[in-house]
UniProtKB/TrEMBL annotation:
Top-rank taxon, per record: Bacteria
Keyword DNA repair: no
Essential cofactor(s): pyridoxal 5'-phosphate
Segments forming domain Aminotransferase class V: 140-328
Role this protein plays: Catalyzes the reversible conversion of 3-phosphohydroxypyruvate to phosphoserine and of 3-hydroxy-2-oxo-4-phosphonooxybutanoate to phosphohydroxythreonine.
This protein's pathway: Amino-acid biosynthesis; L-serine biosynthesis; L-serine from 3-phospho-D-glycerate: step 2/3
Descriptive protein name: phosphoserine transaminase
An MF annotation (GO) of this entry: O-phospho-L-serine:2-oxoglutarate aminotransferase activity
Amino acid sequence: MIIPENLKPADGRFGCGPSKVRPVAVAALADVATTFLGTSHRQATVKNEVARLRRGLAQLFSLPEGYEVVIGNGGTTAFWEVATFGLIRDRAQFASFGEFGSKFVSSVKAAPFLGEPSVRKADPGSAPTLVAEAGIDAYCIPQNETSTGVAVPIRRVEGADEGALLLVDATSAAGGLAVDITETDVYYFAPQKCFGSDGGLWIAVMSPAAIARAFEIKESGRYIPAFLDLVTAIEQSRLEQTYNTPALATIFLAAEQTDWMLANGGLEWCAKRTAESAGVLYDWALNSPVAAPYVVEESLRSNVVATIDFDDSVDATAIAKALRANGIVDTEPYRKLGRNQLRIALFPSVEPADVEALTKCIDFVLAGL
Ligand SMILES: *Cc1c(COP(=O)(O)O)cnc(C)c1O
């Protein structure tokens, strides 16, 4: 099936990560190909880019006094181990409602030096809440469950023990959904989603209480692998560097994207843009005789990752395949969810007009199937 050129989006990348990298950002990287790439990460040229990224993020998230932007290598998956070793004192509570939330739970359960976590579950497509519980020193929740397209409001747990931390996996939400950072202690993510960069880096916006916790645990003498040592990451970040060699292109592209977001109006602009894209897609689905938003409860429907179910009369796999053959890629659903579904990233890099074009392309494919 050949989709007419005039129906197609200008950019066919709708994947949830790695996701669309803006060509203008890649061109900016090409401009520094011989002066930045391939140079020492302990020298000013690279440290200035780390500083640009950290400063930009501090501005984007309107960092309150004492909060710090900490970075390290290994992406969000590595950060779960960092948090397991360096942020949870004994017992954590998790809101687990999909693949990504459950992976952090597994890491904590496997740690012999931690108490049994409390896990609050909900079926995929919905979300549980965190609830105050005595003895819990860290509450953990994803802001946006990328596997299901469920996004939840982020606020502190009322009645929690004094000093309990709130850790938010914002990997697919940061930079695309609004957040009040004062409601969080650790807002962590990786830059291959809303930040339109490449993978391999973790970024954690940390409160003074979270920083103090990291030092407290380190000083307690707990064994912490050097690569996962959060105190080292905090100290290195303050020097605008990472413990070991980072991917320089990843840092540059993330800094470029952050500056682009700021130049357009910051987080508020980003959240408005993803809301616009989501509006286009969900409205289309609600008006389609064969499609519907997978997330039933409207308030939980994500503006950054949309999941669209299809009627049994239609094979969503065939739609994704036809789109892919026409250069419109990564609309396949999260494999393990096993739904007759398309999943579409609506990160800030994605043009709302391209989302509109995508709906036209899906209609074209549906008519031809
Ligand atoms: C993509 C994603 C991850 C995994 O990130 P990596 O950098 O690949 O480890 C974790 N959590 C959420 C919510 C994600 O969307």
